[in-house]
Specification:
The complex is a heterodimer of chains A (146) and B (651). Chain A has 146 residues and is mainly β. Chain A contains three helices and eleven strands. Chain B is built from 20 helices and 22 strands. The two termini of chain B are 39 Å apart. Classes of the chains: A mainly beta (146), B alpha+beta (651).
Chain lengths: 146, 651
Amino acid sequence: MPDASRARQLVVFTLGSEQYALPIEQVHEIIRYNEPRSVASRIPWVRGVISLRGRIVPVYDLAARLGLEAGLTEITKIVIVEAGTEIAGVIVDEVEEVLTVEADRYEEVPGADSELIESIAKLGDRLVVLLRPSTIFAPQDHLVAA
Amino acid sequence: MDTSEYMPMFLAESREHLQDLNLAVVALENDPADRETVDQIFRIAHSLKGMSATMGFAQIAALTHEMEEVFELLRQRSGGLSQDAVDAVLACLDALSAAVDSIEEVGREDLDPALLIDRLARLVRTTAAGQVMHVLVSLDEATVMPAVRAHMVLAALGEHGAINSSLPGPDDLDTFKGLEIEAWVTTEQAPSELAAAITRVSDVAAVEVTEHTGELPGASPAPVTTGPAAAPAAEEAAQTPGPRPHAVYANHSAQTVRVDAERLDQLMHLMGELVIHRTAVEVHTQGLGSAALNSAMQNLTRSSQALQSMVMQVRMIPVDVVFMRFPRLVRDLSTKLNKEVELDLLGRDTELDRSVVDALGDPLVHLVRNSLDHGLEPPAEREAAGKPRLGRLTIAARHSGGSVVIEVRDDGRGINPQAVAAKAAAAGLIDPDAVASIDTRAAIELLFAPGFSTAETTSDISGRGVGMDAVRAKVRELGGEVLVESTRGAGTSAQIRLPLTLAIVSVLQVDIAGASFALPIDRVERALRLSEQNVRSVTGRRVLALADGIIPLLDGAATFGQTPTGTEDLVVIVRGATGRVGLTVDALVGQRELVTRPLPPVATEGQPVSGGAVLADGQIALIVDCDALIPNLGSGAAAPPAPPAPSRTNG
């Protein structure tokens, strides 16, 4: 990572009892949860599509993707993530805050799904899992395998 | 001089010029006597030279200058260009295209024209056959209309050679009152023959023809062609000796404006939003009972519809933009394959949405390559079959209802079902036992199977790993379909049928299992109440027995992976690729104009939908891909493999 030596700003959100984060540069916006239009995708964690200013954007169930249990609540949000030309929404329980995390707080995660998880930031007794935005978007091999 | 701001224009115009030149040179090869084309070539080459010199591209300018010399000779003599000359000129055009590409990519022309210039120069020397004659004609003193006689003299000279220059010049001809006509003519004929031809003109008293040596009187009246087909351009050339101005193009550009294609797309996009908002307003005003509001709403609708059709029109461009590449392509390929082919381009003015035209190039090139490579036979084989030696390839575009049909048709050997089936069996696509019993229709379907054409030994012409499956996928992506028909020994026809415009589609909006779907209105035949129909079962699948035929019945909810609600009592009959299909729906919502948006591939991969649209209330409707509604009734041995799930991109 070119910016590994610098502090990074992260958007922190919760899924169940765990805390996750995405780099702020890739968070396009956060919107209130509306039931996406179901599309019966063959990929289980594709929840459906929503319209975002005329564009049709897929919405991913991040909890299902990570193998977590999570239900919908009043405060459920959709975080719109941008990576390259792709744009997608991920469902999160609640958006907590924007944190600036120094580079030395990150730790590699032994045994974690490194395709999804970039690193873990240890902040006091909090663990914030930094996700890899590029892999939130369905890689093509998932399509082929489906 | 800083020319960078003109660069995009230079690139665009250069490409246009090169394309036109390619076309014109090939056209001239077919019809050497066409003076208009000659003049056109000259004009374009000249503009190209001027433009590149202005932009500081010396090598392009040098090469076009030399080409101009060749074209100049062409203007002076009849008989067109030799095969050598055409090849050389086309090679130059290729080099120029490469140079233009290189300018765009790396900013340099990267062209070393020395070899090509040498090749051209040799042509000029060998082409300059014939001797320049100086002709002096004296008219009878009693001549009543010297202007008419002078005209006739020059016309007679023009028939026997190329007039380099004359006194009077063509402009002064009408007002000519003298009795002496002087001309310099390049001809292969003897002086006596030339003299004899002129003597036949009335009122000619004396003719003196001498071989001319030394320089031509180039400074006085400019080189000019006066002949039976004295073209306006020749006159224009005569008026302006030296470098010719871009007058011809200036006239055109006064009435048209170059617009960045991206802006057109944006315009379309905004128009789409407007349609969505208008529909929303319509919904909200319904039932409010305000007469003033209703009338204002009507006006708004009318204006926005007019605007919409205008935006559509602006985006329409003639299909000729795609067709233009084919004369050259067909010429090159047929030469390579030793086939004799005549190309007919029909309906070149047919207009299509820009986005469709852009995407159409590759599929059409593939179809044309197929015809040349597999369809049309070598001349000897054609003669043996009692056909004319010259094969005929037709590319035709025409409007048909709300669609455009583009057809690539040849009069070649047609499709041999057994040969196709054998090849498919070899590629493991079908059971070898099924080869013998295959019919033409099933064989054609095999052509579209993925892996069919990649399995063949890669021939230089059409076997590039892209097969008919790629053509079909591309055309389906555009919302169209490909149909192939073939008669053994008589030829093959491939038709691409496309919607006129892509972005806004007229649909029947329906509800299936509580979700919105949209059926393209041009595919909808009718809607029926299911309980009043005769529903039967064939091989365990439901069919609808109608008065005019038996059609497969698809359960809407199951087809789109929704949970059935059990309330589906309506069936919509739609036309798909394999025939009519009945689709059950919960409710008919109404006819709508929807702005199509690409769907994320992850969401709908493998489902029979071709796109999405945002409805007035912000909900999303999926647009049903009627061609992908596969009834799946029975499965005989010769049944084609299921078509590939059309790949959908965000593009």
